[in-house]
Amino acid sequence: MSKTLIRNARIIDGTGVPSFQADVVLSEEYIESVGRHAPSGDSYAQVIEADGLTLTPGFIDMHSHSDLMCMALPNSASRIGQGITTELLGQDGLGAAPITDALQADYSRHIAGLQGDFPPEFWRWRSFNDYLSALEKSGVSVNLAALASHGPLRLAVSGMADRSLTASELTAMCNCLAEALQAGAFGLSTGLIYPPCVAADKPELTALAQVTAHSGGLFVAHVRNERGSVKESIQEIFALAQETGVIPHISHLKVIGKENWGTARDLLNLFDEANRRGLRAGFDQYPYPAGSTMLSILVPPHAHAGGAEALLSRLRDPAWRRRLSAEMADGLPGWENIGTAAGWDRILVTGINSERNRRSEGKTLSAIAAERSCTPQEAVFDLLCDEQLSVSMVNFSLCEEDVAAILQHPAGMLGTDGLLIGQPHPRAYGSTARILEWAVKENRLLSLEAAIHRMTGRPAARLGLDRRGVIRPGAFADLVLLNLPQLRETSTFTDPCRHPDGFERVWVNGVPVLAGGKHTGMHAGRVLRKQARTR
Fold first, then answer.
1. For the chain, first and last CA: distance in Å?
2. How far apart are the C-alpha atoms of 195 and 476, rounded to whole Å?
3. Quick one: which of 319, 428, 505, 512 has the fewest CB in 10 Å?
4. Closest CA to 187 of 241, 111, 233
5. Would residue 25 count as lying in a domain?
6. Dihedrals φ, ψ of 533, to 5°?
7. Is 235 in the same domain as 312?
């Protein structure tokens, strides 16, 4: 039996307790022992001298958009390079399964600005179980868990209709959700700013939450509004949890729009109150004052009704363009208008497929509009039409003080929300390094032990992964060896695809996937399936 000895490392075990020096022995996929001195008499295939280095559990990304990219780029280099060994897919209600032959082409175009643009033959699954099997067959470098996604479930019963579901449609959707949960989904995600999820009313969300609660899964929500109505939007999910017993989890907690900056503590008070009532409310967060999503979300939701082709048809129509331009400038009741929350000079176009528009990548919408002698709204319409919706963006609509306040709350966990298209948001490559450098080393917002717990033991417990996220005998050997004095985030908004410094080694299930700061090419990850609770 092959064994590895990691000698004299500073151990931060993922539980939040103070660090300690120890030797760690790995045996196959597990941690065999943790102690001041390794057992004498053992022979080791490899001995790693870790004096001056820090050993932590592998980091867990609670909000990932690698649903398709993890198969296209199985090395998962952006994740492994920052110590992430487990990702939670299926976020914002816009995951990859289930899907039907009839809907696949339109849906893949709808989410291309978020998940990437792939041909029909790439989508070789139809059910949620088939999707997990496809992940297993592809071979990946990180462990993958997945949520069932509201969007594909709703699409299967009513397409991109902008209306309430009928009783039969709601039943069919809930049955499909139950199948996904039985297949191993860790819960349900919804994105209540994204079509088709945006059309969901209270009865629909209640029914979905009841099915999810029955399985013991998480109800993960991108809330309806992260701007002026963010408190009411969070309370909508907490009220749902109170009624159904589902576990509520808020995606990428933040407050956007300069007029709302400085109010993060009001949001955190909502979590404190919810947890006093026993709701087990939690959230994930990326540690940056800028968000990122698909460019098409700048267009009001009603224009998306009918799907990707219907949206593109409207964007080509001069009368529709005039109407949508006015709505994007003036807003609509209840709509989270990211365009006005950030401003056209603070929205970067970051992911473009074609060479025709490549010159616009990395530029603001105001700069693109000036180059084209058009309005920013027209620049959005033209890019979306030219690129068949496959465009992503970064928007600077948050403030660093709110990011810092949210980062320190005990209900929070790591979520990179990393898109991997074009020149992405630096969170895709640098989130963990930014937490350790900016939050721990430079600003002392968190202790090192608390920061590691936020990225390891806490999310593992949230997902019910009792042998991951910790360093202890019998746990899976998902580990990161850090050179903390050299740790530095190197990705930036203008040069984002750069791996951080200071990550010496990463193991996934006992297999070295990063060694000497270089990817080994090993695909040691596994697809994790939650055991659905039965009553």
1. 41
2. 39
3. 319
4. 241
5. no
6. -75, 140
7. no
Are 210 and 259 found together in one domain? yes
Q: In the 8-state DSSP scheme, what is residue 532?
A: -
Structure tokens that stand for 334 in this block: 């209840």
Strands (E), 286-427: 291-294, 347-352, 391-395, 412-414
442, part of any domain? yes
Q: Where are the beta strands (DSSP E) in 215-261?
A: 218-222, 247-250
* Residue in this structure with the two tokens 């998902």, named with its chain if needed: 478
Please tell me the distance from the alpha carbon of residue 188 to that of residue 211, in angstroms, as a whole number: 9
Contact 347, 380 (CB under 8 A): no
CA distance 18 to 396: 36
511: Cα within 13 Å, side-chain hemisphere: 17
d(CA 497, CA 427): 10
What CA–CA distance (Å, rounded) separates 229 from 182?
A: 35
Residue 84's domain is classified under what CATH number?
3.20.20.140
15-32 pLDDT, tens digit each:
999 999 999 999 999 999
Distance of CA 144 to the CA centre of its chain: 12
Amino acid at residue number 121: E
- What is the Rg, in whole angstroms, of the alpha carbon atoms belonging to the chain? 23
Q: Cβ of 118: how many Cβ atoms within 10 Å?
A: 15
What letter would DSSP give residue 501?
Answer: B
User: Same domain for 252 and 320?
Assistant: no
- Taking the C-alpha atoms of residue 437 and residue 487, their distance in angstroms, rounded to an integer, is 7
Query: Does the pLDDT of residue 348 top 80, yes or no?
Result: yes
CA diameter of the chain: 80
DSSP E strand stretches across 42-154: 46-49, 54-57, 59-61, 84-89, 143-146, 148-149
Report if pTM > 0.85.
Answer: yes
Q: Are residues 131 and 232 in the same domain?
A: yes
> What does the alpha-carbon distance between residue 378 and residue 280 come to, in Å, rounded to a whole number?
44
Phi, psi of 442 (to 5 degrees): -90, -45
Task: Compute the average pLDDT of residues 310-321.
Answer: 97
Are 245 and 110 in a shared domain? Answer: yes
CA distance 35 to 323: 68
What is the DSSP secondary-structure string of 276-290? HTT---EEEE-SSS-
Q: Among 421, 108, 91, 114, which residue's Cα sits nearest to residue 296?
A: 114
Please report whether residue 408 resides in a domain: yes
- Whether residue 495 is contained in a domain is answered as no
- What domain count does the chain have? 2
How many Å apart are CA 26 and CA 58, to the nearest integer? 14
Q: Which domain holds residue 151?
A: 60-289+398-463
Grade residue 533 by pLDDT with cuts at 50, 70 and 90: low
- In angstroms, the CA 416 to CA 285 distance is 7
Asked whether the beta carbons of 138 and 74 are under 8 A apart, the reply is yes
Question: Are 133 and 66 contained in the same domain?
Answer: yes
Q: Find the angle CA(184)-CA(190)-CA(194) to the nearest 5 degrees.
A: 140
Provide the token pair at 119.
């041909």
- The per-residue pLDDT for range 426-446, each reduced to its tens digit, is 999 999 999 999 999 999 999
